[in-house]
Amino acid sequence: MSTNNDRQGSGDESAAALRQPSRRRFLQSAAAAATVGAAPHLRAQAQTPSAPPAEVHAPVPQHPVTLNVNGRAYTLQLEPRVTLLDALREYAGLMGTKKGCDRGQCGACTVLIDGRRVNACLTLAVMHEGETITTVEGLAANGALSPMQRAFIEHDAFQCGYCTPGQLCSATALLGEFRNGTASTATADVRSRPPQLSDAEIRERMSGNICRCGAYANIVAAVRAVHESGGQNNGNA
User: Are residues 149 and 171 in the same domain?
Assistant: First the structure.
């Protein structure tokens, strides 16, 4: 009797175990249910919202702008927002003025406007009608290099040459500023002009022009040589 009862009890336990879901089967069913429930949400996220239609702006009209560059009048059709640098390079075809940083930090685009140094990338062309603009192409006169240009060659004051047009225009104006008594932060006494242009003065006054090749010592030597020789430069400086 006990044997039959034991067998019967064992069978009941086996049947109950079959009726109860296993832990693995339960986890599989739960994962499948979660995936099915998340599918619509994932599809909704995957749908890219339609972009609003692009706003069409009317083109800015061009106007004739006359620039006096290197003794020649250039009448250019320009938008009001065209910089002087782009006007010189892209419209007047004067490629000597270089575009370096295009932010007024490197000085490669320096030109002379009525003898003053100006970063051409930071000013608009329409602002300079009626003024005298000198680029590096205008420093030489009648085919002869200016004293500053000759000094840069003699003192090897350039390497790759990309910054050289801006360096030349800046150095040309520097001598004019010094002759006119314009002080700098390196001037010991701003009430009186020093008799000689020291190397410290040259470095300070040329600090707005960056030479990535590092030819600074030779640039200073070239400027000093022109100053000491009393050479006059073109460019209304």
Answer: yes
The residue among 137, 169, 187 that closes a domain is 137
- Does the pLDDT at position 233 exceed 90? no
Statement to judge: residues 183 and 125 lie in one domain: no
**Distance between CA atoms of residues 99 and 64, nearest Å:** 24
pTM of the model: 0.74
Q: Cβ(133)–Cβ(115) under 8 Å?
A: no
Q: How high is the mean pLDDT of the chain?
A: 86
* Residue (of 89, 139, 116, 105) closest to 97 by Cα position: 89
Instruction: Please give, one letter per residue, the 3-state secondary structure of 136-157.
Output: HHHCCECCECCHHHHHHHHCCC
Domain range spanning residue 182?
141-229
Least confident of 4-18, 110-124, 126-140, 165-179: 4-18
CA distance 213 to 161: 9
8 A C-beta contact, residue 181 and residue 124: no
pLDDT digits (tens, 9 = 90+) for 1-48: 455 555 555 555 555 555 555 666 766 676 666 665 555 555 555 556
User: Same structural domain for residues 157 and 186?
Assistant: yes
Spatial separation of the C-alpha atoms in residues 234 and 139, rounded to whole Å: 5
